TrEMBL record:
The keyword Cell membrane applies. It comes from the Bacteria. Keywords: Cell membrane, Membrane, Transmembrane, Transmembrane helix. It is a multi-pass membrane protein. This is Mechanosensitive ion channel. Residues 634-700 form the Mechanosensitive ion channel MscS domain.
Length: 830
């Protein structure tokens, strides 16, 4: 073997342009010259000069690009830095799992599972990145191999000058190739080693996660089995001879370490919540400022008083908004993080209730907060102690007593409490009683779960109720900030918005509450798996396949799109509650397009999210076409007319129009019909097709200027010039009456009993037409009376053709008789 190796070392391989042992340019050039003399490998040619030069240039550019990519390298620094953190987390979890042989604790097991899932997600992301980097390096390696296999590079120029140029270019190319190849191999080794590290840790995490899932399954199976000594046996035995304070100290230390690791891994989620809180606070503050700017001080303050939470307590409302959403969506977070979120929420709720609750209810609320604090401490304990068992017993008894006091207080107080307060309190009492029974029968782990769930579920029910009110008030401020109206109208708008939104938000809050209950009872995973399997199982009806999830998603998306389209007008202030002519809204008919887009997008999203094939949509459209042909012409006509109104904009929300015998302010331009607020207080619903097909007068299409005219008559014999001057003086210094074009006074005609004038003048806002005309007529009437000019009333000449002879004689006799003397008793002068 040594002799063979020695002989092998003495053999010198033939020179090759690809396999060069050194990088030195002179050596490479010398080897190429030797190869050029070997006609079996290199050929001299005059016809391939252009091809060879182009190839060398192309390969040089390619190698430059590859080297640039390799020099930039791959972003593995973050992975390398965080690998020790993963190792620390794994060591902590292994230590916890090793210490769970005494008394299994569901909170500790679940915390380990949460951490392992976070680590698995992070390691999986790292693996995907490393695989992507490795594939890029393999692609570079394949490119280098393809360059080596190019036989056209074996042709060299026959001419000496070109030959020298070729040798120089090829030398630089080979040197660059060797550099790229070397850098690529180094990167491949580096990425491969890092992949191996990550893969080993991913395997460890997967194994530990399987162990945690097994422990959770075992705990669920033995949930109501005895796990500690009976409370009436205080003597120490072999089950758990632990003291409370050492266990609490170890538990707090472990939870703090878990939280720090969790924050190091999931810190972007905290940034998201902070940004969301900032946006919500800015939204509320901007709307409050806009309301104060658009309304007088007293009126604006009256409007803002309807938002008792977000206006009076903006910081607390923002905290409740963000922390409540975090509590609902934080399904996979450590217990300490969840309890910190609960603490922030409770502090904000206590601040709100301090100003709105009666003293007795507020005192009961503080007692509930104290119980919540005790259960939060209890949830952190990783092992059971005798003191904890007595603490659970006492807390359960206090919860039962507090529940009955709350039931009595809510039945006697006049304070307006939520509709479902009594059922929630009864559930609180029942869960607390069950927790006490579990403590008595030495089921401490289950007692901890149900006792904590009783308090947390009750408190978060109030929390979600307050969140719904905060969201409704925020929407109310959005509505009021985008319109001008009176206080009463503002309140009516708020009631309308509340009616439309409250059901939707209440349903979402109830679903979130159920999620919290399932999570606190550690039933969320089991319920999620059962519901997922139920919804995702494929069903068959005839030749059609469907799943319940697709049906629910389809209905839910369309419902949300419909609700959103209905609320868009209110969100931007176009409520149409006022019939007085006010300036047009900022968005006008654009809201109709937005509503159409929301509905159309919702329908398409519903089909896409539910997995319904597009060919089924074609069938539906075909069926609709048949329906249109038989009886839906009017509906489709109105829909298309609504789209025409949105694009052509002959009318917009806020316009004053006349349609036939009806006139009023456009309140809403809907998809099928539009609403007009008439001046008598009624609302006229007009199909969109009528607005397109009939003759329509729009008084405010371009501006709000309007001409007002009236007819005035004076008695014969009046001075025409004087009357004209009096009428023109009525328009001088009248606010709202335009001077350009100036008022016109024309002598119209000589009537039966008066000289008639026609008067025309222009006003800047048609909403003031009646008021300004009244002022003008009042001034003219007073001025004509002062000038002694008669305003004639109707006069007629009476011609009598025949009169009875007796009546005529009596009239003559009365006329000739002295004044006050009657020719006959009981007769008077005619």
């Amino acid at each position: 073997m040594p002799a063979t190796a020695q002989r092998t070392k003495k053999k010198t391989p033939p020179p090759d342009t690809i396999h060069m042992a050194v990088i030195d340019s002179a050596t490479i050039s010398k080897n190429i010259n030797k190869l050029a003399q070997d006609t079996s490998k290199m050929k001299k040619s005059d016809t391939a000069v252009a091809v060879i030069i182009n190839r060398i240039e192309g390969y040089t550019l390619l190698l430059n690009q590859l080297m640039s990519s390799l020099r930039r390298g791959f972003d593995t620094l973050n992975i390398t830095r965080e690998v020790p953190l993963v190792d620390t987390s794994l060591a902590l979890i292994k230590e916890n799992i090793a210490g769970q042989d005494r008394t299994p604790n569901i909170n500790d097991i679940y915390t380990n599972k949460v951490m392992l899932e976070q680590l698995q997600r992070k390691l999986g992301g790292w693996q995907n990145n490393l695989f992507s980097y490795y594939n890029s390096l393999v692609a570079i390696n394949d490119t280098l191999h393809s360059l080596r296999r190019d036989t056209s590079m074996r042709n060299i120029p026959a001419e000496d000058e070109l030959y020298g140029f070729y040798i120089g270019q090829l030398t630089r190319l080979i040197k660059k190739y060797r550099s790229v190849d070397s850098a690529n191999k180094v990167s491949l080794v580096k990425i491969g080693l890092l992949q191996n590290k990550i893969a080993n840790r991913y395997i460890d995490v997967s194994n530990l996660l399987e162990d945690s899932n097994y422990q959770l399954e075992q705990f669920s199976a033995n949930m109501f089995s005895r796990d500690y000594r009976y409370i009436w046996k205080p003597h120490r035995d072999s089950i758990n001879p632990l003291e409370f304070f050492p266990v609490f100290k170890r538990s707090l230390h472990k939870s703090t370490r878990v939280l720090s690791i969790f924050f190091s891994i999931q810190w972007p989620i905290f940034i998201v919540w902070i940004v969301l809180a900032s946006l919500f606070a800015w939204w509320v503050h901007a709307n409050v400022r806009r309301i104060r700017r658009n309304h007088p001080e007293q009126e604006g303050e009256a409007i803002l008083q309807h938002a008792q939470y977000v206006y009076r307590h903006p910081v607390a409302s923002t905290v409740i908004f963000v922390t409540t959403l975090s509590s609902v969506f934080s399904v996979r977070y450590p217990i300490l993080y969840t309890e910190i979120i609960w603490g922030l929420t409770m502090i904000a709720l206590t601040w709100l209730f301090r100003a709105h609750f009666p003293k007795t209810l507020y005192r009961y609320w503080l007692m509930l907060m104290a119980l919540l604090f005790m259960y939060c401490i209890n949830n952190l304990l990783i092992e059971v102690t005798y003191a904890e068992q007595w603490g659970l017993m006492i807390c359960a008894g206090l919860c039962i007593a507090l529940g009955f006091r709350l039931l009595k207080e809510t039945s006697l107080t006049t304070f307006a409490h939520p509709k479902y307060t009594a059922p929630t309190i009864k559930l609180f009492i029942a869960t607390s009683v069950f927790s006490m029974l579990l403590v008595i029968f030495a089921r401490v782990g289950s007692a901890k779960i149900f006792g904590s769930s009783a308090v947390v579920n009750t408190v978060l029910a109030m929390n979600l109720y307050v969140l719904v009110k905060i969201l409704l008030e925020a929407v109310f401020l959005q509505v009021e900030a985008n319109k001008n109206s009176s206080t009463f109208i503002s309140f009516m708008d708020y009631q309308d918005v509340q009616t439309k939104l409250k059901t939707f938000l209440t349903v979402l809050a109830f679903v979130g509450w159920l999620v919290i209950i399932a999570r606190n009872l550690y039933l969320y995973d089991a319920i999620y798996e059962v519901v997922t399997e139920l919804l995702s199982t494929t069903r068959h009806i005839g030749n059609s396949d469907f799943t319940f999830s697709s049906v629910i998603i389809f209905v839910l998306v369309i419902w949300v799109a419909f609700v959103a389209s209905q609320l868009i007008a209110y969100m931007f202030g176009n409520t149409g509650q006022s019939t007085s002519p006010t300036p047009k809204p900022r968005f006008g008919s654009t809201l109709l397009l937005l509503r159409l887009a929301v509905l159309a997008g919702g329908i398409l999203l519903a089909f896409a999210a539910s997995g319904i094939p597009m060919d089924k949509i074609t069938i539906v459209i075909g069926a609709l076409s048949v329906g249109i042909g038989f009886g839906l012409q009017n509906i489709v006509n109105n829909l298309v007319s609504g789209i025409i109104l949105a694009f052509e904009k002959p009318i917009e929300v806020g316009d004053v129009i006349e349609l036939g015998t009806r006139s009023g302010v456009v309140k809403e331009i809907g998809i099928r019909s539009s609403k007009i607020a008439a001046y008598d207080g009624s609302t006229v619903v007009v199909p969109n097709a009528d607005l397109i097909s009939q003759q329509l007068i729009n008084w405010t299409m371009t501006n709000r200027i309007r001409r007002v005219n009236f007819v005035l008559g004076v008695g014969y014999g009046s001075n025409i010039t004087q009357v004209t001057d009096i009428i023109k003086r009525a328009f001088v210094d009248q606010e709202g009456i335009l001077t350009n074009p100036e008022p016109i006074v024309q002598l119209s005609q000589f009537g039966d009993n008066a000289v008639t004038f026609q008067v025309y003048f222009w006003i800047s806002d048609l909403g003031n037409a009646g008021t300004l005309q009244s002022k003008v007529l009042t001034f003219i009437y007073d001025a004509l009376n002062e000038a002694g000019i008669e305003l004639p009333f109707p006069q007629r000449d009476l011609h009598i053709r025949t009169v009875d002879e007796a009546v005529l004689n009596k009239w003559k006799a009365n006329k000739e008789a002295p004044s006050g003397v009657y020719p006959e008793d009981g007769e008077k002068n005619l």
